[in-house]
Amino acid sequence: xxxxxxxxxxxxxxxxxxEDRAWVLIAEAGGASAKGxxxxxxxxxxxxxxxxxxxxxxxxxxxxxxxxxxxxxxxxDYLLPEGTSPDFLKISPQGIDWYERHPRTVARKLAxxxxxxxLPFTKGRALTKEVTALLGHAALIGERFAKDIxxxxxxxxxxxxxxxxxxxxxxxxxxxxAKIDLDLIPRTTMAEPMKFSxxxxxxxxxxxxxxQLLRKRQHRWHQSxxxxxxxxxxxxxxxxxxxxxxxxxxxxxxxxxxxTQNLIELEGSSRKAGLPHS
Length: 278
Hints:
Helix content is 58%, strand content 4%.
């Protein structure tokens, strides 16, 4: 793959700080699974695939910038020898962690996640960033306090009480003004006994919740959460168009207009009966 497939403008690559150029180098080489890396082979005259797509007058500067990024990766121990040959390198465990946490990786994964392909019961509908943050908060709540399931009616409902989007903020104000005892909610909706203050104290920012969500490959869905998101997708189709992305207002609408008490009972009864939760 050529660098130009990631950054079409050569000068943009040249002007990047070393860490960001290093990210481009790894992304161009295959991402976190990159191996068999040999800078001499990559930059050999006639086989300089990394330079394809850039004007000849920029090749020298791009090559120098590329070498600088390579040196940065070696200085940070993000590249290690592969096998016995010192000429062929692979990304180290520390390098993989750095690459996965890099803002450009998160942005790329977020763009893919927002397309909605990860959630088949939303019928392929794209997601807003606010829904992704809500899912991140719900996953953190479910993983920490339910232990066996990340996404359920309970974790999605509680996510509205810690998320930072405007609708969630409104809902949090409503709950406070109505003087609802928040400690009753976790006892009703979650498997583990806790107080809401435990959930609030463990919560993260929306961006942190999204980042943690995207770093995990698989999540477990309870059928109650699947029902909510399926209804939310149907609601988005009824009040919008075929390309209307799934938004937090649709999730809130599904929580309000579906028989939510039945969903709570469904979740509780399936746990007691030992039924599968995903």
